[in-house]
Amino acid sequence: MLLFRAGFLLMVLSSFGCMDTPEAPDPTAGGMPAEELVVALQSIAETGEYRDVQTELTIGLEKEGLMEEAVTVQTFNDLSQEEVKQAAEKLAKRLSEREPPKS
Q1: Domain locations in the chain?
Q2: C-alpha to C-alpha distance for 63 and 31, rounded to whole angstroms
Q3: Which helix (H) or strand (E) holds 10?
Q4: pTM of whole model > 0.85?
Q5: Rounded distance, CA 37 to CA 94, Å?
Q6: Tens digits of per-residue pLDDT, 35-76?
Q7: What angle do CA 66, 68, 73 make, to 5 degrees?
Q8: 57 near 40, Cβ under 8 Å?
């Protein structure tokens, strides 16, 4: 009986490695297209509302290599609505003055 239990336990434990595990989502999948970044930031600068687009905006900025700007968007959670508007306005201006991405 003990041998049976040990065998069963060994079989169960060894089967864990055979199970399919879900793959982690690609953190760079999705994201806001480059041509929408300034428009989104201008909208945030006007309304102060950012939560619905924060993740997509951050990923879009990261894809464009704008890591500092992406970090700024992530700090919106720590800012007042007025501070968010000001930060978004500065980012929109900085991005609109930037050379367009080369395709």
Answers
A1: 28-103
A2: 8
A3: helix 2-15
A4: no
A5: 11
A6: 999 999 999 999 999 999 999 999 999 999 999 999 999 999
A7: 95
A8: yes
Q: Which helix H or strand E contains 9, and what residues bound it?
A: helix 2-15
Contact 101, 43 (CB under 8 A): no
Better-predicted residue by pLDDT, 98 or 61: 61
Close Cβ partners of 97 (under 8 Å, ≥ 6 residues apart): none
Write the DSSP assignment of 33-92 as a string of letters.
Answer: -HHHHHHHHHHHHHH---TTTHHHHHHHHHHTT-HHHHHHHHGGGGS-HHHHHHHHHHHH
Closest CA to 70 of 43, 49, 50: 50
Cβ atoms within 10 Å, residue 79? 16
Please give the Cα distance from 75 to 88 (Å, whole number).
Answer: 11
For tokens 């500065």, what's the residue? Answer: 90
